[in-house]
Amino acid sequence: MTRRHARTLLAVAAGLTMAGLSQAGEVEVLHWWTSGGEAKAASALKATLQGKGHTWKDFAVAGGGGDSAMTVLKSRVVSGNAPAAAQIKGPSLQEWAAEGVLANIDDVAKAEKWDSLLPPVVANVMKYKGNYIAAPVNVHRVNWLWANPEAFKKAGAKVPTSWDEFFVAADKLKAAGIIPIAHGGQNWQDFTTFESVALGVGGAEFYKKALVQLDQASLKSPTMEKVLTTFKKVHSYTDKNAPGRDWNLATAMVIKGEAGMQLMGDWAKGEFIAAGKAPGKDFVCAAAPGTAKSFTFNVDSFAMFKLKNDANVKAQKDLAAAIMSTDFQEVFNLNKGSIPVRLNMDLAKFDDCAKLSSKDFVDTAKTGALVPSVAHGMAVPSAAAGAIQDAVSQYWNSDKMTAAEAMAKIATAAQTK
Ligand code: GAL
User: Fold this and answer.
1) CA of 378 to the centre of ligand 1 (A)
2) Is any ligand 1 atom within 6 A of the Cβ of residue 269?
3) CB of 266 closer than 6 angstroms to any ligand 1 atom
4) Please, which residues have CB within 8 angstroms of residue 317's CB and are 6 or more apart in sequence?
């Protein structure tokens, strides 16, 4: 036997053993992580699954915020062809589970002790009638402001901590020929800005009453009117090409210094990092104006669908277990811009933005200023959330609608069942 022949045989044998031991299966995974930082994070998930000897079938549907992905998912499930795992979050998990299409992964969760590794606020969302149906990957903070320090220096402006300061800085950037705020005019991005303004102007208690409990009196209050007026003023500092722009292209404008700031969750940090930029030096992360003591959370998770093939079920469970491992939580979140969802992880490799996020996540959980993101599907059932977002975008894009008219529209939208 030649040496090469022997090596080939050995390799084949090793492959067979691996396949035999782990019952190699295939996992089709639906996600919308296609931007620079997102794609790197998705690759980490793929590598983790492949490391267990299984096959990854990529089902990526481009479109920030996942609206397109959810539309495609619905049609696949309706036609009886669900993927093994899909990026589904917040109350939508309950909606899908109620359809009877999600798998119970309690055996994995018990073996891996998820109840003791997850904050209860997250664990509860991952369960339907007491059983785990999804695995969480991260905690994104949504209420961030990203700034280009060079642009600020050129404009003689200071990174704002209140909405009053925000408009002072925006005027200075504008005077220096820099687009003050990079924005992408899509519903979910409009609402990402809106909820940060609501939190900064109204505070966490107002945010919870108006946007989470959908309390009619709060939705039609003077505070809401002030939120809407402030929000609309931000529009005048965006550029004329904003409509339809993808969020990562808006981030690229800040990276290049064409724009001074962006209001966006920390998946934007994934873009800065993927572009080789260093936090504190090439870009600044600051809480969105007026929100330093609050935290808007957005937890990404993968729901597991019922499957028939045993090997694929095994692969799906291996994926769920791997998602919660310390190795995966570290490498994934370093690329994604988020922080691990698993408690008590060592953050030594994480940057100061992530460390601040982690500290604020813990602190705000104690003060009651930890609030769910409505823009990212954490708080409100999908029908009402969609109607409210439409109303907010109509106001953002209209030259005529007053804040009072917008308030009435949003309050009606909040009653959508
Ligand atoms: C969010 C999602 C993030 C990020 C962002 C932009 O809804 O939770 O992971 O990818 O959309 O696509």
Assistant:
1) 12
2) no
3) no
4) 105, 107, 108
Domains plus CATH for the chain? 2-139+298-352 (3.40.190.10), 144-297+369-413 (3.40.190.10)
For residue 14, pLDDT over 60 is answered with no
Residue 332 Cβ < 6 Å to ligand 1:
no
Instruction: For a ligand 1 pocket test, name from 193, 266, 267, 373 the mutation site with the most ligand atoms within 8 angstroms of its C-beta.
Output: 267
- Rounded to an integer, what distance in angstroms lies between the CA atom of residue 276 and that of residue 414? 42
Per-residue pLDDT of 249-289, as tens digits, reads 999 999 999 999 999 999 999 999 999 999 999 999 999 99
What whole-number distance in Å separates Cα of residue 140 and Cα of residue 145? Answer: 13
Q: Ligand 1 in contact with 298 (CB < 6 A)?
A: yes
**Residues for the chain: how many in total?**
417
Give the confidence band of 22 by pLDDT, cuts at 50, 70, 90.
low
Cα 74 to the center of its chain, rounded Å: 20
